[in-house]
Design brief:
The complex is a heterodimer. Chain A is mainly beta. Chain A has one domain: Immunoglobulins (Immunoglobulin-like, Sandwich), CATH 2.60.40. In chain A, 0% of the residues lie in helices and 55% in strands. By secondary structure, chain B is mostly beta strands. Chain B has a single domain, classed as Immunoglobulins (Immunoglobulin-like), CATH 2.60.40.10. Chain B is 0% helix and 50% strand. Chain B contains no helices and eleven strands. In chain B, a hairpin with a 2-residue loop joins strand 5 (44-50) and strand 6. The chains are: A mainly beta, B mainly beta. Chain A binds chain B through residues 4, 31, 33, 35, 41-45, 48, 88, 90, 92, 94, 96-105, and chain B through 31, 33, 35, 41-45, 48, 50, 55-56, 58, 90, 94, 96-107.
Chain lengths: 112, 113
């Protein structure tokens, strides 16, 4: 069964600091997605990474994909309180259509 | 443009009852998927429909069923509700059958008492 693992599961960081969330997956998929979820809310798409070496940046967030290592990272630069949320990575499996497999999520709290 | 819309947003049922959740995809999207998200976990795949045909089914019991209508909207039905069915049910639409980005609705939060 395809597995997606994120670490850390919980992250508490001070404003202004940098940190990286890691996403490891067990399939050969070359499509990886990052989502953000605020408490009680739905999933907001952050990044779509579609090839090995893909790097995308939006504001203080930057995502990258290494398909050979089956690893994606979400880097946070100079964190601010508004980034507090749960972040999920997901991969889809070509063999099972458009089924997405989600990681366990990383709950990020940015402390002023 | 309207995003993915789901109804109802919240509902409370008792064990053994039946529930129907509804979803309208983004205009032009022909693929609808359903996910279950239990508190503290990532979403789990339930079904995918594309052009009214079931394209994928997750590891859920037969109490769960779904269908897609000619206008591409969809319903998720759950029979004989159990306490463990309490969750946020998310609908997602995509413009493609395979390899397409998923756009999620706000979800239907089901509580089973």
């Amino acid at each position: 069964e395809l597995k997606v693992e994120q670490n850390p599961l919980f992250l508490s960081m001070q404003e202004g600091k940098n940190y990286t969330i890691y996403c490891n997956y067990s399939t050969t998929s070359d499509r990886l997605y990052w989502y953000r979820q605020d408490p009680g809310k739905s999933l907001e798409s952050l990044f779509v990474l579609l090839s090995n070496g893909a790097v995308k940046q939006e504001g203080r967030l930057m995502a990258s994909l290494d398909t050979k290592a089956r690893l994606s990272t979400l880097h946070i630069t100079a964190a601010v309180h508004d980034l507090s949320a749960t972040y999920f990575c997901a991969v889809d499996d070509r063999d099972t259509g458009n089924q997405f497999y989600f990681g366990t999520g990383t709950s990020l709290t940015v402390i002023p | 443009d309207a995003g993915v819309t789901q109804s109802p947003t919240h509902l409370i049922k008792t064990r053994g009852q039946h529930v129907t959740l509804r979803c309208s995809p983004i205009s032009g999207h022909k693929s609808v998927s359903w996910y279950q998200q239990v508190l503290g976990q990532g979403p789990q795949f339930i079904f995918q429909y594309y052009e009214k045909e079931e394209r994928g089914r997750g590891n859920f019991p037969d109490r769960f069923s779904a269908r897609q209508f000619p206008n591409y909207s969809s319903e998720l039905n759950v029979n004989a509700l159990l306490l463990g069915d309490s969750a946020l049910y998310l609908c997602a639409s995509s413009g493609r059958a395979l390899g397409g980005e998923l756009f999620f609705g706000e979800g239907s939060r089901l509580t089973v008492l």
